[in-house]
Design goal:
It is a single chain. By secondary structure, this protein is α/β, with parallel strands linked by helices. The chain is 28% helix and 16% strand. The protein has twelve helices and eleven strands. The strands form two sheets. It has an eight-stranded mixed sheet, with helices on both faces. The protein starts with 5 loop residues before the first helix and ends in a 5-residue tail after the last helix. The N terminus is likely disordered.
Length: 349
Amino acid sequence: MPLLASVAAGLVLTGLAAPLAAAERLPELPPLGIAADDVSVVGVSSGGYMATQLAVAWPERFSGLGVLAAGPWSCARGALRLALGQCMTSRLGAPELDEVANRHRDYLERDLVGDRQALAQLRVFVWHGTEDDTVSPDLGRALAEQFQGWLATPEEQLLQLESEDIGHGWPVMARVATPVDILADCRHGGGTQLLACGLDIAGEALGWLHGELAPPAEAAVGGNLMRFDQAEVRDAKGLADAGYLFVPEGCEDGGCGLTMALHGCGMGAGQIDDAFVRHSGLNDWATTNRRVILYPQADTSLANPQGCWDWWGFAESAWQLNPLHDTRQGTQIGALMGMIDRLAESPDD
């Protein structure tokens, strides 16, 4: 079932892997003294929607935003009906960007998102496959249009790409160590949603967001891939027990950049084990370019059967008439920013 498609069937876009055993004790997220001016967030599908929410809520904390197979910021405006009908398909018409703009202005007045000047400085990468039948490519174009109105010099800061004959998911360039059985069909997706397209989207995104990078080494990835306890932020509805962190050799002592990578629906460790965490291509680029990669994990629930990130308001709707999931007060946004804060702490403290 496609990554976001089970939304219509369930509720919505609604090592590494198994739930924590009762007796298992995982390490906490370590302080790594990451470079505060070199932090990016990338995401696919529901993770792409969440990545944009993070960047708009806290633009001063990010230098770059990468979005794959997702639509404009606050597209659903807290309504499941719009999430399904305007933010995946166009059954209810195109997203109402004027209404979204009014929402953003209201948030600005209430200090619920970052100021326009900080937002205007982001570098932004937007990608979509032309054969995506889960999230329409028109929605990626709407996201690019939105940022064209926000960025200071969009012709220099924004890269929008569409790839022919590619469906919904995260395209990868298979390497020697990539198990063939985890790869999904490039055009039709399914399974892990790691699409065997011969396209290294991780390198494309990181290269645009952070400038010219050293190519991955041919040898095996060097670094430590660890599983950490998300207990400190588990009160944020929808987070799994454990998250994952890749630390390249030499980054334990501080000074490295950070990229937060947000999986899509059905792509968390509870659904596809360590496939996205190990084989997205991000770790390969991180190793040769001194970047820590943080892989937070969303969890499944009755309201969110595919373990999606909260881009339509399910985590807030139980107590908020108008969910603030897409603001600085959003519980998942707060949890994810808390992880960045922890990684920014000095390892010497």
